[in-house]
Write a structure and sequence with these properties.
This protein has 314 residues and is of the alpha+beta class. The chain has 2 domains: 169 residues, no CATH class; 117 residues, no CATH class. It has 8 helices and 15 strands. Keywords: Signal.
């Protein structure tokens, strides 16, 4: 009877996927700590006189796609069956000036085995000479052939090259990183990190997670983020960690039915669901209006040379 009680107790508390609510005072203390992180991050970045900003305009219908820049996937799920259109920033995929590759993997809808005849994919690389200016220029365009549906393909891949001119150079970050294809027990290490993040979500450790990600400051540098930008990023409500938001029925989905994807020419790795290709870090919750929502988080990991630890870059 005692053993049965311990098992039930573990199931109720030791494996709980429901987050615990913080008090208003605890949230204010956390905000104060987050403001300190913002100042630390601002001290690391460089202020550039010009802010050229590169984007990919993604348009697609009749298919699901994975879009990559230099073999790094955009941190947004375009693998929905519905048509999608988005202007997505890619400065933090470029790392510096030079030649780059924009690539796309085209998959059939979840209801089909092969790519359909009504598949349409158009990608454009757009340059804003100044990030907050009105001037823009299309510097490259990729159109998936309209006749690929007749080839009955399970997947179609295509790519184009383009050049960038940027004021920063952070190429050494991935150039010097370990080739993850040669790291033993990689999947176990990746899964352990993802579960660590999931546990932090459940515990509501938003500040602790943000502090852990302070090492990604170079993305702040590449995106020319200001103090106002960081305050939005850090201090606005976050349903994934249940930070400063009013939600009920919050639950973190288990990490299962996943596959490991090595990308970035062997320097980055992430997990995604096998069938839907979406993010494995997911939470469900109900807002005060009674509507139910799902929030997801994309992360990609790398391993610096001389280290055995996986760090988040995205």
């Amino acid at each position: 009877m005692k053993a049965l009680f311990l098992i039930v107790l573990f199931m109720a508390f030791g494996n709980n996927s429901n987050a615990q609510v913080k008090t208003e005072k605890e949230t204010e203390v956390e905000k104060t700590k987050l403001k300190e992180l913002i100042q630390q991050e601002l001290a690391m970045v460089t202020r550039y006189p010009h802010h050229p900003a590169y984007y990919v305009q993604v348009n697609k219908s009749g298919c699901r796609i994975v879009v990559k820049v230099d073999d790094i996937p955009l941190g947004y799920n375009f693998a929905e069956d519905e048509g999608q259109s988005m202007l997505y920033p890619i400065n933090d995929h470029l790392f510096g000036s030079g030649e780059h590759v924009l690539s796309v993997e085209v998959y059939p809808l979840t209801t089909r085995q092969t790519i359909s005849a009504d598949t349409w994919v158009n990608l454009k690389v757009i340059l804003f000479p100044e990030k907050h200016g009105n001037e823009r220029e299309m510097i490259a365009e990729l159109n998936v052939p309209r006749d690929i549906g007749g080839q009955k393909l399970p997947v179609y891949c295509d790519s184009i090259n383009f050049k960038s001119t940027l004021p920063f150079n952070h190429k050494q970050v991935l150039n010097t990183a370990k080739d993850l294809r040669k790291v033993p027990d990689l999947e176990a290490k990746v899964l352990a990190h993802y579960n660590k993040v999931r546990d932090m979500m459940i515990a509501g450790k938003y500040y602790e997670y943000s502090k852990m990600r302070l090492r990604t400051w170079l993305r702040t540098d590449m995106n020319y983020l200001t103090e106002d930008d960081l305050e939005v990023a850090y201090l606005e409500p976050d349903e994934l960690f249940r930070f400063d938001c009013q939600v009920t029925d919050w639950e973190a989905a288990p990490i299962e039915n996943y596959e490991m994807v090595i990308c970035g020419y062997g320097k980055l790795v992430y997990l995604r669901h096998i069938s839907t290709m979406d993010e494995v870090l997911q939470t469900t919750y109900t807002e005060i209006n009674g509507n139910e929502y799902i929030s997801t988080k994309f992360i990609a990991l790398y391993m610096p040379q001389g280290s055995g630890e996986l760090l988040e870059l995205y």
